[in-house]
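Quick one:
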Amino acid sequence: MAAFVGQSWALLLGIFFLMLGNGMQATLLGIRGALEGYSASTMSFVMAGYFLGFLGGSRLAPAMIKRVGHVRVFAALASMISATFILFAAFPSYVVWILLRIAVGFCFSGVYVVAESWLNDSASNRNRGMALSIYLIVQLFGIVSAQALLNLGDPSGYFLFVIASVLVSISFTPILLSVSPVPVFHTSKPMTLRELYRVSPLGCIGSLLLGATFAGLWGMGSVYGTEAGMSVAEISLFVAISTFGGLLCQFPIGWISDRMDRRLLIALNSTACAAASIAGIVFGDYFIALLIIGFAIGGITHPLYSLIIAHTNDFIGHEDMAAAAGGLIFIHGIGAIGGPILVGWMMETFGAKGYFIYILVLVSMLAGYAFFRMTVRSAPSSEDTAALTPVNPGSTPVAVDMVAQEYSSEQDESQ
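Output:
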């Protein structure tokens, strides 16, 4: 671990600053929207714009990199992100915000592809799984830390948007000046969605439902806070504790998943999340209770994405994992686009508690389908499954491709 961190500290530091900036703008925009008088349903379209742009960017970024190279793509897109953060404060119009969020999502997807390509290139077969784990920790720690920065200024002004812009700008320096040589970018032959569904129905349905869940949970968390009457400090703490729960629970749940039928663990996790959502509906007026509930929901749902990928990989050869990953991420992105819009409608209809009603419906559907799949197909033996490698739901196909490479190296060593 020390050798990898010593070699990749500049890249990891740059990613940390990226997540600080991205984590700030997502929460800050939800707070600023309430100050501008925008309803939850209006803000839901603003928040959905990021996921629409991210999905489009993840499809186009490989072609951009092949044409002009990693360095130019990273510098151009990161510069656009930095400029866009300032424009949010300069043009407080929800129509402009939607367009800016689409641009931010598009640019971040390309930046992540470049950063994760460099991460993959700096890792070896012996430490690729560890590299992904460290990458996940840095990402989530950046998002958690970003929430504290929201208390440094007035969300109705420019200052916090400037800070987010500066943080993204700072991220260029360690990545562009310290990482060498430029990695070779590879693309895998895609797997059709029909083929992917035939291989893993739970993987496809689970990715769709989780995409909608994550986008609603994290994309609209700050909007929920404003609807529930929280202060800026309380909103930042609520978003931070949910993310921290995902960071803390990822690895123990992963350890458990390597020792039981992953479908059962997916079903049990989803059921537990449904119970926590019911608690949120009942005890939503008590802030301390909301912190506990937010920690539980974040800790339960965040590992589900890694579980879905690991479950899908259990039924395919390692040579097809990268192609399957691309399909799962596309399905995840489709769900993510609709997630904030549905949450906004639920909060408009049922008030702030619609946030938890939405999560309850989705995770209940996931639990029910996972239990159903257990009756249709038997679980693979433990000898035929790979160890779970944690993956962030906001990662690109490059990071998930690293999971396939990790599994492939494990298979080669066992033979």
